[in-house]
Structures are given as C-alpha cells and as structure tokens.
Amino acid sequence: MSDTLLFSVNDHIARITFNRPAVMNSFDKQMADELESITEEVRANPDIRAVLLNGAGQLFMAGGDLQFFHERLNTMPAGVMKIVRTLNASIINLMHMPKPVVASVHGSVAGVGVSLMMACDLAIAAEKTKFTLAYTGIGISPDGGASFNLPRLVGVKKAMEWLLLSDIFDAHTAQAYGLINWVVPADKLTEETERLLKRLANGPTQSYARVKRLINESWQFDLEKQLEREGRAFEACSITSDFKIGVNGFLNKNKPEFTGK
C-alpha cells in the first residue's frame, strides 16, 4: 500500500484507487510516480485480466494539486516536464495494456482526472457526478492526453468548447457525448462496477486485448491497412484456447468459461 494510491489484485482484477481524500485526490508528483510504477506492473502481469481506476472519499479527482504548483510558482517551469512525462507514462500504460480498464467515477472529475478517465477503456459514473476540463480556468493548457482523446471521443467542436470554457457539465451530458458509457444511481455504483469487472475478468482476455489495440491504434491507419490489421488479429485469436472454448460453447449451447489464454 502506498501513501497516495491503494492497490490490490484479487480474482484477476487489479484495483487502483486515488487515495488523497483530504485534498480531493488531487494529483501531485508522488501520485504521478506511484501511478507510473503501478500501471507498469499491471500492464506486465498476465494474471490480471481487468483493471479498476477509482477514487477514495467524496470524489474521483479534483485535478492537479494547486498547492503543489503554488509553492513552485517562482521556480516554474523547472520540473514541469518531469512530472508531465511521468503522467504520460501512466496514460500510455493504461491505453496500451492488453486488458480492459474501467474508470468508476463519482462526485467530481476535473482536469487531469478527466484525462485519466479518458485513458480508460470504459467509464461508469454515479448520476450526480460533475465534470470539467478546468485547465483554462487557471490559465494552463491540457495534459494527460486530453487534447488527443477528447476530440476523438466527443468531436472537435465540443472538445474546443469544454477545453476553452472549462464549463461544468453533468453525467448525463457526458454520456450523451460519448465521454462515459453508463450513468447509475450513486448507491448502485459499486455494485454495477463490480458486475462489469467480473464480467471482463472472466471474458476472453486475448480477444479483448486485440479489440483494444485495434480501436486505439485505428487513427494511425487508412482503411486498407486497418482491414489487414483486423485480419492479423483474427488470425492470432484463432489459435487461442478461448477461441476453441467459445466455438465449442456456442455449438453445444453452453456458456463458455474463458480462461484468458
């Protein structure tokens, strides 16, 4: 257990919890260092088949630690690129790890909290959750891949609006624009999150990994190249144990019990 993050692995599910509730889980250098280390470990561990990212206390994350920056205003930009590159490593780990990552959010999601949520593959939110990109509200530009992921999820015009104006919007708006997948009552968030995690952890992990890679890298290729990549992924999946289990289960009318291999 670390100071700023809680981390555990049970039943093939890794759980990473932002754990600075006294300061609204704000993101600082220590949290950046610990998140990079943990996401690297999770990415490399083949026994982990699903990942949860959530926040302790009353909210998911209020953004960067402004007190941390306030104490360093007179020495900026010294150290900025170091913490940014550490954050970047975690974003890359979340988006490239060959297993699905779920963000379960509540309370408030602001600034880099939105960036981290967008780096996850799926997102579920309590119905009263509030969101804001927040960056321009303090005169700074986005980080954590916000300028990359947001326009791809919600379109360029909406991304411009949310990033330029830093307005607050609710969970149903976030869902309507494709920023999150599900909105649930607050008292059902844990239950619904666990249901989703268990489903993913018992699913065809190799298939999930290739779906994730195909989608996340599709922007780099034209149609012809993407079709070829789909064929190669299909070919790789066809020799997995889970493909055999899936085909036999379908033909025998039995629910397949995937092994992740």
UniProtKB/TrEMBL annotation:
<dbReference type="InterPro" id="IPR001753">
    <property type="entry name" value="Enoyl-CoA_hydra/iso"/>
</dbReference>
<protein>
    <submittedName>
        <fullName>Enoyl-CoA hydratase</fullName>
    </submittedName>
</protein>
<dbReference type="GO" id="GO:0003824">
    <property type="term" value="F:catalytic activity"/>
</dbReference>
<dbReference type="InterPro" id="IPR014748">
    <property type="entry name" value="Enoyl-CoA_hydra_C"/>
</dbReference>
<dbReference type="Pfam" id="PF00378">
    <property type="entry name" value="ECH_1"/>
</dbReference>
<comment type="similarity">
    <text>Belongs to the enoyl-CoA hydratase/isomerase family.</text>
</comment>
<dbReference type="InterPro" id="IPR029045">
    <property type="entry name" value="ClpP/crotonase-like_dom_sf"/>
</dbReference>
